[in-house]
Amino acid sequence: MRQRGFTMIEAMITITILGLLLLLAMPAFIEFAANAKVRNVTESLLNGLRQAQLEAVKRNTNVKFRMTADGWEVRDPDDESDKGKLHSEIVFEKSSANPPKVSTEPVGSTEVTFSGLGRVLEKNPPSPPGTDPIAKIKVDPADKVGTRSLGVAISALGGNVKMCDADAKFTYSGSVDPLACPYPW
Q1: Model confidence pLDDT, tens digit, residues 14-66
Q2: Exposure pattern of 25-47 as b/e (b: 16+ CB <10 Å)?
Q3: Domain residues of the chain, as ranges?
Q4: Which residues contact 76 (CB under 8 A, 6 or more apart)?
Q5: Is the pLDDT of residue 95 over 70?
Q6: Omega into 125 within 30° of 0, i.e. cis?
Q7: Fewer CB within a 10 Å sphere, N or C end of the chain?
């Protein structure tokens, strides 16, 4: 009579093959997770900017988008109290290991104000003079684990807000890649 089950050698070979497959798949999974974090943060910032723009048009008044230490907020620029906060979202969880690196241009700029027509104001009122609005946001993977950097371009002329691939090739005559950021990036 034949016995059912696995022999110890069959079980060891199966476990070894599974271990090798996991070992081979781990770098791709780590890169995928890092790229997903970059994409999530970029999409959240893009959604916040669009929400501020929409709120400005809806109210027919100035509305400010502000990046905070843990995310972003949309607020009435004339009311710095909690009542002035219209929307907010936490993007960077404190428990999150290796959050993506976010940089803005002009360097250190954290706000952009939209007019009632949905256009970007040249300066952020009532902030001190010289506070230029955010023109670009670049989100890089933490510790260069991921392969993609994404950006958000904010056009001062028409108020366009676009998510783009910060590393895509762009020429002055036209973009080689439709996902490329506007010139100059």
Answers
A1: 999 999 999 999 988 888 888 888 899 999 999 999 999 999 999 999 999 99
A2: eeeeeeeeebbebbbebbebbbe
A3: 8-175
A4: 61, 63, 64, 84, 86
A5: no
A6: no
A7: N
In sequence order, the 6+-apart residues with CB closer than 8 A to the CB of 142 are: 34, 37, 98, 99, 100, 101
* CB distance 45 to 67 below 8 Å: yes
DSSP states of 72-134: EEEE-TT--SGGGEEEEEE-S-TT-SSPPEEEEESTT--EEEE-TTSPBPSS-TTSPTT-PPP
Q: In this structure, are strands 63-67 and 111-114 parallel, antiparallel, or unpaired?
A: antiparallel
Q: Determine the 3-state secondary structure of 44 from DSSP.
A: helix
Residue 110 CA to residue 93 CA, distance in Å, equals: 19
pTM: 0.80
Q: Cβ neighbours of residue 34 under 8 Å, at least 6 residues apart?
A: 98, 100, 141, 142, 145, 146
Contact by Cβ (8 Å): 152, 164: yes
